[in-house]
Amino acid sequence: MNRIIESDFPFPKLSLIAERESWRKEVYRPIYYLHKWWAKRLGSVFRGILLGACLEKSEDFWQHYYSKNTFNDKIVFDPFMGSGVTVGEAIKIGCRAIGRDINPVAYLSCRASFSKYSTNDVLSTFRKLEKENAPKLLSYFATKTRRGINATVLYYFLVKTISCPKCGGEIDLFTTRIFSRNAVPRKDPSARSVCPECGEVNFTTFDAKAVNCQECGFSYDPRKGNIKGPDVKCNHCQYGFRLVDRMAQLEAPLGFRRYAKLVLTHDGRKLYESLNDADRELERRVATEFAEIESSFIRVAVAPGYNTNQMLKHNYRYWHQLFSDRQLVCIRQIVDTLRVIDNEDLRLLFACLFSGTLEFNNLFTSFKGEGTGAVRHMFAHHILKPEMMPLEANIWGTSKSSGAFSCLFHSRVERALSYKSDPFELRVNGSKSNKVHGINMSLSPRVTDDFGLFNSNTETVYLSTGDSSCTDLPDNSVDLVITDPPFFDNVHYSELADFFYYWLNQIVEISSKSTTRSSAEVQDTNSELFTAKLTSVFAESRRVLRPDGLFIFTYHHSRHEGWTAVHRAIRHAGFACVQSYPIKAEMSVSMPLQQAKSPIHLDLIVVCRKDSKYIKQMNKECPNVMSAVSAAKRQVSALKGAGIKVSLGDAKVTLMGRLLCEIHTIRQLDLEEKFLDEIENDIDSYVGQLAVTRGEVLYEEVDTQPIQLTLFEEMAEYLANKAN
Ligand SMILES: C[S@@+](CC[C@H](N)C(=O)[O-])C[C@H]1O[C@@H](n2cnc3c(N)ncnc32)[C@H](O)[C@@H]1O
Ligand SMILES: [Zn+2]
Ligand SMILES: [Zn+2]
Predict the structure, then answer these.
(1) I need a surface site. Which of 250, 300, 421, 690 has the fewest CB within 10 A?
(2) Cα(610)–Cα(573) distance, rounded to whole angstroms?
(3) CA dihedral over 450, 351, 400, 327, signed as positive or negative
């Protein structure tokens, strides 16, 4: 117990900083936001973990948090690199860093984030791309207003269409006729709706029950469309049918129709209008151009999977089908100019920028409303969910666009570059916070994919793509393994990442494989398989870790299997859990319905050792449950004392951490298993029981003392009875 993270880690105060970071992650840690990745962790948490793992317990944590560190004798390895949070935070405090991820999209985006660039080269490449692309791409969004004034379309509003199986008529699949409203209608109740009779855009309010069309006088209920949930009603013959049944009879994805546009005039005004002759003429031109290039898009099939099955049901069978003709014409233009960027690093950087842009420019996006980032991107849900009223945004972008190539250049690339040259930290003081500059190493190492080079050149960071259960790192070669493993649930990163990979691989050509899926990805709905794969990565981590090294990871879960899996992986890989802390996490997980009102906001930091020399008391006959419960109680109180809300789900995460530490003090592995099996099931049924008897109170944020105490007291009593 000689490091801060093993003895007295300041998790409450660190949680406050993490919470502040979570409000504007892309501004406070832009380096990890160059490209989309899922389940990104908070940088301040990993900075804290790294410092806690490098510093002796006698040292001053906060003094080091806000000053320059040079731990260049420490090698840190992250086997589940994701967007590179561990790697980046390690570089900032002078550690040497190794990152590996099975997914090439994660690997490429990390390489792009950490590579060294000359700002001038980046800017001149952008200017060149702007010259080659902007006029052409903007011409696909040129329009005239109703009054005949030249303007630019910010967004076209699309509705999917389907032919009626009975009368053959074309049906617009509007879920509602209101297509634009303020994200906070209390602030601004105004809204726009489209007339079902003549297609005119009418001004209304978000809660209107009736609208009289200003053009044709038709009166309609704007809340009603032709599709409600799974059911479609034909507006021509009134025949009702289920969308999925009809899709099964069809071959292709649904068609669409553009019914409205939001334009930006030269004097900066935004106008909603229906489409006019100029727009229809442009549509025809785009369709003709698209027909000429359609066959140039490589056909890569979408494979079935939890995240892709729904789009397959909608007949999206190839990755390039997720776009409109206009989007594909623009994409072809950009891809062709990116592919010929000579410098490999710059090509990758702009490929990542472009790939990120696609998240906001495809048929699975929708309009979020006024008063917010206008585009609801496609990954708002974890499954790829077809959208009935998609948005077609101006892909090059204007000063008022969201998710466009030129906008993301400023908000992602330029921000990341400036952070790379002087990475700052947040200091939180009550409701205020400030940025502390000048205390970190710059984030521009030389990235290598060759361990030999890494070994011989201390200026390098070693990044690779592949299965982390098998690495080329020598035995006992790293000081710290710090990571964030996948959770045991249904989200397969690779199923989603394939959307980006299809394009990235055409620009930077990383592999001849057409998918990022791999049977070695630690992800499975089968808990045995998930555990086995997680164990093999943990075991490899143990092999490469020095005997006195620390293995630290973050985790949370709401279900028994999630905890059993992680416990088994730790133990079967040959580690023992020596310490755990709850810490503010960025996201909550999906949970069984009965716990839905108690979301998890906390992660657990699990600290493990590999060598028995460092593991005290591994000789108990049976775990002391009461001690785990009171430790959890102390941790929860400390968080609450710092002003961090703790929900019932969070309390359980905290307790599970303490139980892991506690059961790893017993000698026999089979006893641990038995104990964990028993206790996990009991804790959950007990929590469920509590919920039923206490109704809503426990499901709310547990931020008042009596509720928290009651929960723990009762749980303690219960566990004590079980243990006896
Ligand atoms: C929870 S994410 C890590 C997220 C990361 N902490 C971040 O902040 O972005 C888990 C990562 O593990 C990767 N992964 C899954 N199985 C793997 C394996 N066998 N070897 C290496 N990486 C793997 C996934 O591709 C994913 O990027
Ligand atoms: Zn019909
Ligand atoms: Zn009308």
Answers:
(1) 421
(2) 9
(3) negative
Separation between Cα atoms, residue 339 and residue 343, nearest integer Å:
10
612 burial (CB, 10 Å; 0-12 / 13-18 / 19+) is exposed
Are the C-beta atoms of residues 114 and 88 closer than 8 Å to each other?
Answer: yes
Name residue 447's beta-bridge partners.
461
CB atoms inside a 10 Å sphere around CB 531? 21
Q: pLDDT tens, 62-76? A: 999 999 999 999 999
Q: Residue 164 CA: which ligand is closest?
A: 2
Q: Are 319 and 499 in contact (CB under 8 A)?
A: yes
Element (H, E) at 460: strand 460-465
Dump pLDDT digits (tens) for 18-66: 999 998 999 999 999 999 998 899 999 999 999 999 999 999 999 999 9
Residue 594, classed as helix, strand or coil, is: helix
- Rounded to the nearest whole angstrom, what is the distance from the C-alpha of residue 261 to the centroid of ligand 3? 16
Quickly state the pLDDT bin for 688 (edges 50, 70, 90): very low
pLDDT value at 687 more than 80: no
Q: Residue whose CA is closest, atom 13 of ligand 1? A: 80
Residue pLDDT, tens place only, 114-139: 999 999 999 999 999 999 999 999 99
Tell me the pairing of strands 255-265 and 150-163: antiparallel
Ligand 1: which residue has its CA nearest to atom 7? 40
Condensed to tens digits (0 to 9), the pLDDT of residues 201-217 reads 999 999 999 999 999 99
DSSP assignment of 232-254: EE-TTT--EEEHHHHHHH-SSPP
Identify which ligand lies nearest to the alpha carbon of 216.
3
Q: What's the CA gap between 716 and 628, in Å, rounded?
A: 9
Question: DSSP letter string over 177-246?
Answer: SEEEEBSSTTT--EEEEE-TTT--EEEEETT-S-EE-TTT--EE-TT--SEETTEEE-TTT--EEEHHHH
691 pLDDT band (50/70/90 cuts)?
A: very low
pLDDT tens figures, 364-405: 999 988 877 788 888 877 778 899 999 999 999 999 998 999
Please state, in angstroms and rounded to a whole number, the distance separating the CA atoms of residues 402 and 360: 8
Which ligand is nearest to the Cα of residue 587, counting in written order?
1
Average pLDDT, the chain: 89
Ligand 1 site residues, Cβ closer than 6 angstroms: 37, 39-41, 79-80, 82-83, 85, 100-103, 106, 467-469, 484, 486, 493, 520-522, 537
The residue whose CA has the least distance to atom 8 of ligand 1 is 40
Closest-approaching ligand to the CA atom of 236: 2
To test ligand 1's pocket by mutation, which of 76, 101, 379, 488 has the most ligand atoms within 8 angstroms of CB? 101
How much distance in Å is there from the Cα of 485 to the middle of ligand 1? 6
Q: In this structure, which amino acid lies at residue 557?
A: H
Output the residue whose Cα is nearest ligand 1's atom 18. Answer: 467
Q: Quick check: 49 and 75 in contact, CB under 8 A?
A: no
Cα(617) to ligand 3 centroid in Å equals: 79
CA distance 179 to 174: 9
Are the beta carbons of 187 and 371 closer than 8 angstroms? yes
